[in-house]
C-alpha cells in the first residue's frame, strides 16, 4: 500500500508492511518458475493425441517439475528464468537480519540434540573454555537470542505503518490498516505452519521417521536435548486424530503456555507470535489518538508492567513498537536522513563544545551499541548467573521472569535491531544478496529445518560417528561438521521449495480472501 501524498516518502519507493515471517511481499516476488506459478501441463486438446504430442506433454511436465524442485537461484541452469535483481526496500536490512537469525537457529537445533554445551557460556562450572563459548562468538550456536530478535522485528515491522498513519492524523487509514493486519495475521502464521505439520504427518505414515525413532529409543546418540519427536501410531485413523489435535492445540489462543508439539516442536513460536501480535494491535488501537509523547510513555509503562509480570514475549513486541515510533520521530528511513549519517555526531548540541578527540561519530556510537547488543544477546541459556562476563546481569533481571536468561537477551535483541536501523554501515552487512535470499526463505526455512533434522539428521549422525569415530574431540567435531554440511544445504533447498510452493501462495491467499470479504466503496452493507 502506497503512503498517502501528505506523508513523507521513505528511503525507497516502498517500505514493505508485511510481517516478520512473510519472506517476500507479492510486489517483490520474481517471475521465476515455482510450484505455485505454473501448471504441470497445458490443457489437452480435444480428440485423440498422437504419441509425439503425448511425449511432448510429458517432457514439458518433467521440465517444469525439474525447475520447480530446483532452488530459485539455480533455476536458470535447468531452463528456468534467471534471478531478477529487485530494488532494495527500506527495511531490507531487517530481512537480512531475520535470515541470518534463522540460520543460527538451525545451528543451535542441529547441535543441542547431541550436546548440552551449546546452552552454557565460557567458564561455566569451571570448564567450557572453548572458543564457541566466548561472548559474541557464542551467538553462532545460540538459539534463544534469535527468537528474541524475531519477536522484536515483528513488533517493529507490524507497528511501523500504523504509527506512521497515526502521526499524520489519518485515522480512517489507521483503522483500515489495523483491521487488515488483524484479519490476515492468523492466516499468515498458521497456513504455512499447518501445511508443514501435515507434511510431517505424511512422512510419518510413509515410514520416513522409522529409523530416526529407533535412534531416539536407543538413547546412545541423543546426549543433549531429547525434544519432542513425531510419534508413529499403528493405524492411520489414530495418527490423523493425533495430527488434528496437534493443530487444534497449536491454534489455541487462550493457552499462554509454550506449546511444543510432537510433529514440529520448533513451531512453539507461532502461537506466541499470534498472541503477542494481537496484544500489539490492541495497544496501537488504544493509543492511536494519543499524542506521541503520551503514547510512548504509556507503551513504555506497559512494557515495564509486562516485565514485572514475566511476559517476556510481549516485551519484545512492545520494544519493537517503541523503536518504530522513535525512528519515525527521527526520520530514520528518510532519504535525507540516511545521507552521510556516519559522519554526523551522536550529540550535535554538545559536540561543538568538546575537543575533537572526545567527539563520537554516529557510526562509532551505533557500532558500539551493536557490539554491546551482541554481547548481551550471547548470554548463555543455562547458568548465566554463574558464568563469567554475565553475573552482573542477574542482578538486573526481574525476579518474576520465568526464564531469567531471556532478560539480558531481550535487551540485547532490542539494541541489535535499534543500532542496525540507525547505521548504514551495519545495514550493509545484511543487504547483500546472500542475506536477502536467507531473509526471503526465512519463514519457510524455519518451518522445514526441524523435520529434516529429526528425520535425516537423527539418522545420519550415529552412522557418521560410526565411520569417523567420536573418541577424540577432533573426531567428535568432524562428525558434527560432516552432518552439518549435509543437513544445511538440504534444509535450504527444502525451505526454498516450501517458500515458493506454500509460503508465497499463503500470502497471496490471505490478501485475496480479505479483498473478497471486506466492504468496499463506502456502500451500505445489506447482508
List keywords for this structure.
527 residues, mainly alpha, 18 helices, 58% helix
Question: Care to describe what's here?
Answer:
With about 525 residues, the protein is mainly alpha-helical. The protein contains 18 helices and no strands. It has helices at about 50-70, 90-110, 145-165, 170-205, 210-220, 235-250, 270-285, 290-310, 310-330, 335-340, 350, 360-375, 390-395, 405-420, 425, 435-440, 440-470, 475-515. Helix 4 (about 170-205) runs antiparallel to helix 7, helix 5 packs across helix 17 (about 440-470) and helix 9 runs parallel beside helix 14. It starts with about 50 loop residues before the first helix and ends in a 10-residue tail after the last helix. The model is unreliable at about 1-50 and about 345-355 (pLDDT under 50). This is Acyltransferase.
Based on secondary structure, the structural category is mainly alpha
The SSE string, one letter per element, is HHHHHHHHHHHHHHHHHH
Main pleated-sheet profile: none
Radius of gyration (CA) equals 25 Å
Domain count, please report it.
Answer: 1
Summarize the amount of helix as a percent range. Answer: 55-70%
Q: Provide a count of the helices.
A: 18
Give a count of the beta strands, DSSP E runs of length 2 or more. Answer: 0
Distance between the termini: 28 Å
GO molecular function, one term: acyltransferase activity, transferring groups other than amino-acyl groups
Domain Acyltransferase: 92-494
Transmembrane segments: 97-116, 136-159, 189-208, 266-286, 365-386, 443-461, 481-502
InterPro entries: Acyl_transf_3_dom (IPR002656), Acyltransferase_3 (IPR050879)
Amino acid at each position: 500500500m502506497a503512503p498517502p501524498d501528505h506523508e513523507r516518502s521513505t528511503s525507497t519507493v516502498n517500505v514493505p508492511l508485511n510481517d516478520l515471517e512473510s519472506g517476500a511481499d507479492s510486489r517483490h516476488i520474481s517471475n521465476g518458475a515455482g510450484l505455485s506459478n505454473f501448471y504441470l501441463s497445458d490443457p489437452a486438446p480435444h480428440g485423440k493425441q498422437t504419441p509425439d504430442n503425448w511425449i511432448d506433454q510429458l517432457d514439458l511436465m518433467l521440465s517444469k517439475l525439474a525447475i520447480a524442485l530446483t532452488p530459485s537461484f539455480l533455476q536458470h541452469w535447468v531452463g528456468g528464468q534467471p534471478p531478477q535483481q529487485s530494488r532494495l526496500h527500506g527495511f531490507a536490512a531487517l530481512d537480512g537480519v531475520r535470515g541470518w537469525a534463522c540460520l543460527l537457529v538451525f545451528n543451535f537445533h542441529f547441535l543441542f540434540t547431541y550436546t548440552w554445551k551449546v546452552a552454557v557460556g565460557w567458564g561455566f562450572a569451571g570448564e567450557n573454555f572453548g572458543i564457541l563459548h566466548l561472548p559474541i562468538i557464542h551467538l553462532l550456536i545460540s538459539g534463544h537470542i534469535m527468537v528474541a530478535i524475531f519477536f522484536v522485528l515483528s513488533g517493529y515491522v507490524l507497528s511501523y505503518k500504523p504509527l506512521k498513519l497515526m502521526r499524520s492524523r489519518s485515522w480512517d487509514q489507521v483503522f483500515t490498516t489495523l483491521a487488515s493486519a488483524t484479519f490476515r495475521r492468523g492466516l499468515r502464521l498458521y497456513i504455512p505452519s499447518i501445511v508443514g505439520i501435515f507434511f510431517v504427518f505424511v512422512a510419518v505414515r510413509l515410514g520416513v521417521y522409522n529409523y530416526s525413532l529407533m535412534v531416539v529409543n536407543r538413547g546412545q546418540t541423543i546426549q543433549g536435548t531429547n525434544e519432542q519427536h513425531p510419534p508413529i501410531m499403528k493405524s492411520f485413523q489414530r495418527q490423523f486424530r493425533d495430527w488434528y489435535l496437534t493443530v487444534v492445540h497449536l491454534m489455541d489462543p487462550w493457552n499462554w503456555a509454550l506449546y511444543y508439539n510432537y510433529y514440529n516442536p520448533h513451531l512453539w513460536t507461532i502461537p506466541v507470535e499470534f498472541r503477542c501480535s494481537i496484544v500489539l494491535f490492541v495497544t496501537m488501537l488504544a493509543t492511536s489518538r494519543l499524542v506521541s509523547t503520551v503514547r510512548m510513555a504509556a507503551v513504555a509503562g506497559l512494557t515495564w508492567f509486562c516485565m514485572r509480570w514475566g511476559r517476556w514475549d510481549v516485551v519484545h513486541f512492545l520494544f519493537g513498537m517503541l523503536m518504530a515510533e522513535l525512528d519515525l520521530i527521527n526520520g530514520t528511513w528518510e532519504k535525507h536522513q540516511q545521507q552521510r549519517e556516519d559522519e554526523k555526531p551522536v550529540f550535535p548540541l554538545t559536540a561543538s563544545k568538546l575537543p575533537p578527540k572526545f567527539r563520537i561519530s554516529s557510526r562509532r556510537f551505533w557500532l558500539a551499541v551493536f557490539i554491546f547488543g551482541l554481547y548481551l544477546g550471547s548470554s548463555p541459556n543455562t547458568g548465566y548467573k554463574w558464568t563469567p562476563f554475565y553475573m552482573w546481569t542477574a542482578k538486573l533481571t526481574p525476579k518474576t521472569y520465568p526464564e531469567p536468561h531471556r532478560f539480558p537477551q531481550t535487551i540485547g535483541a532490542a539494541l541489535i535491531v535499534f543500532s542496525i536501523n540507525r547505521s548504514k554501515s551495519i545495514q550493509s552487512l545484511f543487504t547483500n544478496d546472500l542475506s536477502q535470499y536467507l531473509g526471503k526463505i526465512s519463514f519457510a526455512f524455519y518451518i522445514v529445518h526441524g523435520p529434516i533434522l529429526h528425520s535425516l539428521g537423527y539418522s545420519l549422525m550415529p552412522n557418521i560417528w560410526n565411520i569417523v569415530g567420536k573418541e577424540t574431540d577432533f573426531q567428535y567435531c568432524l562428525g558434527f561438521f560432516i552432518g552439518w554440511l549435509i543437513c544445511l544445504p538440504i534444509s535450504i533447498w527444502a525451505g526454498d521449495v516450501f517458500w515458493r510452493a506454500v509460503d508465497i501462495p499463503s500470502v497471496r491467499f490471505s490478501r485475496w480472501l480479505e479483498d473478497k470479504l471486506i466492504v468496499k466503496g463506502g456502500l451500505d452493507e445489506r447482508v
